[in-house]
Amino acid sequence: MLKSASLICAMALGLSCYAMPAQAEASTNEADSLRSALSAVTDSSVTNVAPDTTKKRNIFRKIIDYYANANKRTDYRKFNFGVIPGPHYSSTDGFGIGIIATGTYSMDKSDPTLPLSNVDIYGDFTTKGKVNVGIRGTNVFKKEKYRLEYKVKTEFCPTDFWGVGYEQGAVEHDTVPNYKNLQVEAMARFLFRIAPKTYLGPIAHFRYMKAHNIKAEGTQVFDGLQRDARATTVGFSFTFDNRDFRLNAYKGCFVQFDQTFTPRFLGNGDDNFITSELTLCGYQKLWKGAVLAGEFHTQLNYDGAPTWLMKAEAGSPYRMRGYYEGRYRDNNIMEAQLELRQNIWKRNGIAVWVGTAKVFPEFKKWGDSKFLPNWGIGYRWEFMKRINLRIDYGFTRDGGGLIFNMNESF
Questions:
Q1: Less Cβ crowding at N or C end of the chain, within 10 Å?
Q2: Percentage of residues of the chain with pLDDT beyond 90
Q3: Are 293 and 133 in contact (CB under 8 A)?
Q4: Which of 380, 379, 372, 334 lies closest to 354 in space, CA to CA?
Q5: How far apart are CA 179 and CA 41, in angstroms?
Q6: H or E element, residue 262
Q7: Does pLDDT of 65 surpass 90?
Q8: Higher pLDDT, 63 or 40
C-alpha cells in the first residue's frame, strides 16, 4: 500500500511539474531528480507488487482441466481429437480397461454444411485375457460426393460355445465348452452420391477366425466342426442418410442395405453363401433434451450357410446389449430396439431402452425359436461436443452385462 501510494504521489507531482511551463526551466534539476525518483518507485512497484503468480499445474490438475474443457471447442472444422480411458466389468470378459481415442474433422473447412468425418482408435484389455484393438471411421468428401466407411480390428479372447441355434443357446450347462477365439476383420465401403443424401457403391469385407485351445470337456461339442475359417466377401451397398449428426442424431433417418456374395472363386472353399443385411434407424426430438431413437436390423444368409464361426449372433456393444456375444447364433437374425435419450444436467444424460431379437436357421423354421428380450439403462457424458462417452447395463434372458463405449449405440 505504501509503495502504491508513493507511486500515485510521484505521478501527481510529475504531472504538476509538466503543467507549469513558467517554472519548468527554473526547476530542471528538480524535475530530473523527480523523474529518477518516479522511475525508481515504478520499477520497485512492478518488481515487488506484481510478481508472477502463475502456478504450475500437476498432472492430476491437467487431466481434470483437459476433460472439463474437451467439449468447449467452437471451431469444429479443424481436427478435434481426444483420448479417454474407462474401466468396465462384464461376466463375459471380467474386469478390463478400455481406451478410446476419437477424432472429428472436415474435408472442406470452407463448407460449414459438410458433415464432419470421424475416426476412432480403440483398445480393450481384460483380466480374462481378452485383447481387442482396432480402428473405424467415416470419411465424408467435399460436397458429400463420396463417402468412405472403414473398419479394421483384431481380437483375441477366451469365449464359451453353446452350439448353433436358439435351442442350444437356451440350455443352461453346468460347464460350458470354452475356447480361445482369434478374429481378424477388415471392411471398406466406398459410396457415390446418386441423389441428395443417397449413396450407392461397392463393399468389400474380409474375415478370418480360428478356434484353438479347446478345453478337454468341450471337445465333443466341436466334433465335426471346422476350427478355422476365412471369408472374402464383395458386393454393393445402398445408403440413405439425412441425420443431423451421424454420431449422435437428434432427428432424421438412416437406411442401409448391403447385398454381398462370398463365392468359392475368392478362396472361400466350401464356405460360399449370399448375405442380405438391412438397417433402418429413425430419430425424433420430443421435449427439451429428449430424443427417441429406434432401430431395426436383419442379417439373412442363404444359398449356402456360413461356418459356425461366422453365423449371425445376438449380443454386441450396439445391439442386444448385455447378451453374451455368440451364445445365440444361427444363419439368420432379426432384431429391434427403441431408446429414449435424455439430457439431465449440463454434460450429463441417461438413456433407457427395450429391445428384442430372434435367431433362426431359415424362414420355414421361424417358429422353432423364441424372441430374446432385452432392456437396460445407461449413463451419457458429453466428452466432446455431441460425442458421448456411453456406459450401459443391459438386462437379458440369462443375466446381464456392462458396456463401456464411445458414441451412441445407433
A1: N
A2: 50
A3: no
A4: 372
A5: 81
A6: strand 252-262
A7: no
A8: 63
CB 323 within 8 A of CB 401: yes
Mean pLDDT computed over every residue of the chain:
83
Q: Are 197 and 221 in contact (CB under 8 A)?
A: no
How far CA 138 is from CA of 16, 94, 189, in Å, comes to 71, 31, 9
DSSP state of 374: E
Distances (CA, A) of 14 to 19, 39, 53: 9, 11, 31
Q: What CA–CA distances, in Å, run from 209 to 127, 182, 222, 308, 309?
A: 22, 6, 15, 10, 7
| Single-letter code of the amino acid located at 85 | P
What pLDDT sits at residue 46? 42
CA angle 247, 400, 215 (to 5 degrees): 110
Between β-strands 387-396 and 332-345, what pairing exists: parallel, antiparallel or unpaired?
unpaired
Q: Check residues 103 and 94 and name the one with the higher pLDDT.
A: 103
Beta bridge partners of 153: 134, 185
Q: Which set of grid coordinates corresponds to residue 64?
A: 481434470
Per-residue confidence band for 345, with pLDDT thresholds at 50, 70 and 90: very high
Helix axes 2-18, 28-49, angle to 10 degrees: 150
Q: How far is CA 194 from CA 241, 245, 259, in A?
A: 12, 20, 18
Candidate CATH numbers 3.40.50.720, 3.20.20.80, 2.60.40.2100, 2.40.160.50; the one for domain 81-406: 2.40.160.50
Residue 224's pLDDT band (boundaries 50, 70, 90)? Answer: confident
13 or 339, which is more confident? 339
β-pairing, 348-360 vs 312-313, is unpaired
Q: What is the pTM of this model?
A: 0.78
Confidence (pLDDT) at 377? 97
Name the helix (H) or strand (E) containing 40.
helix 28-49
Q: Classify residue 214 by its DSSP letter.
A: -
- 68: Cβ contacts below 8 Å, ≥ 6 apart: none
Tell me the domain boundaries of the chain. 2-49, 81-406
Q: What is the DSSP code (8-state) at residue 165?
A: S
